[in-house]
Amino acid sequence: MSIYKIAVLAGDGIGPEVMAEAIKVLDACAQRFHFQPQYQAVKVGGAAIDAYGEALPAATLQACEQSDAILFGSVGGPKWTHLPAAQQPERAALLKLRQHFDLFCNIRPARWYAGFEHLSPLKPQTTAKGMDIVCFRELTSGIYFGAKERSEQSASDTQTYQRDEIRRIAIKAFQTAVHRRGKVTSIDKANVMASGVLWREVVSEVAQQFPQVQLEHMYVDNAAMQLIRDPSQFDVLLCDNLFGDILSDELAAIAGSLGLLPSASINASRFGLYEPAGGSAPDIAGQGSANPIAQILSAALMLRYSFANEAAACAIETGVTHALKQQQVTADLTSTNPVSTARVGDAVAQFITEEVAAWA
Ligand code: NAD
Ligand code: IPM
Ligand code: MN
């Protein structure tokens, strides 16, 4: 039986609550699909600062290095914002992990599930056209990792992109578009930014290797508007680090909730860190009301990308549709009879245990 070594970094806020549901679902999958998950649960972020004085203790990094994949919750919150910037959970743990493992390729799929378009805040005539978008976000360069300066009177962040950094994420986006609807929309601000001009140039070069894919360049401000107006026009989005961060939250809102959007951050060896696109949601932490779907779908992406277990990944995704069908949804998705975080996890796990068996 295959052993899957998984470092579990639940983190802060709603992280531990939604992580428990992802593990519940993974355990149900392990039974059905005959693999053996070996979890190593370690502290990260604010929880690690509180316990050990630093956001990414050596033992946590070591657990990640010894694993095949990292399942990550979320980090940060008001309790730690007084710390010097470099010690805060987001930078000291999450950005550090992305950099350490060279997780340059961030994938955020956003869609409307057939029959659940009403979860979206967009108009029915817009949702009727459907949405199925995969956002590719460059994750280890750009303004996040450029030189930063701060004096009393000024502050600066620098955006630098190397050709190779743009090329490798562009190739991933095009490779995916080949197997989808054959369209890449590359997002930039080439009318203002030098790095945007280079971005456009390199993406156009990569496009020549993929004649079957249509490439469209779009300024980010227009893209933010077009996504709301008619998301059905997009197939694969290709974004730099900052624009991808912003537009992926917009995608989540269009889908219905930040609690629905999973994410995979992978490197050239397909080692990955899998986490919800949203954060620690301090406003609802501890109430058992957070939506665990983004975390559960992140576990599905982990099975797909790091363990090449497509059947188990699909079973989870179908289980999520099942939970939605059964109206087993949290308060972010309904105002009438929302269920708890744990009930959503139960519904997905139960589907995998009982109904996936019937497929075999
Ligand atoms: P957030 O994503 O935590 O929350 C934004 C809004 O979305 C809140 O109203 C929250 O309740 C809601 N929301 C998010 N996830 C939800 C879920 N699963 N179910 C239901 N509602 C959900 O963003 P924020 O408030 O700007 O940030 C809070 C903290 O999280 C900050 O410290 C931020 O830096 C951090 N953060 C961490 C990550 C990460 O670890 N990957 C990602 C984003 C933000
Ligand atoms: C995300 C988050 C992170 C980012 C933060 C917490 C550093 O917002 O994963 O989208 O900006 O990349
Ligand atoms: Mn974000």
Automatic annotation (TrEMBL):
Cofactor(s) for this UniProt protein = Mg(2+); Mn(2+)
GO MF term (any one)? NAD binding
- EC number, UniProt record: 1.1.1.85
Q: Which residues hold NAD(+)?
A: 77-90, 279-291
Catalysed transformations (reactions): (2R,3S)-3-isopropylmalate + NAD(+) = 4-methyl-2-oxopentanoate + CO2 + NADH
Q: What are the annotated GO cellular component locations?
A: cytosol
Q: Where is this site: Important for catalysis?
A: Y144, K189
Kindly name one Pfam family recorded for this protein.
Iso_dh
Q: What's this chain's function?
A: Catalyzes the oxidation of 3-carboxy-2-hydroxy-4-methylpentanoate (3-isopropylmalate) to 3-carboxy-4-methyl-2-oxopentanoate. The product decarboxylates to 4-methyl-2 oxopentanoate.
> What is this protein identified as?
3-isopropylmalate dehydrogenase
Source species? Pseudidiomarina atlantica
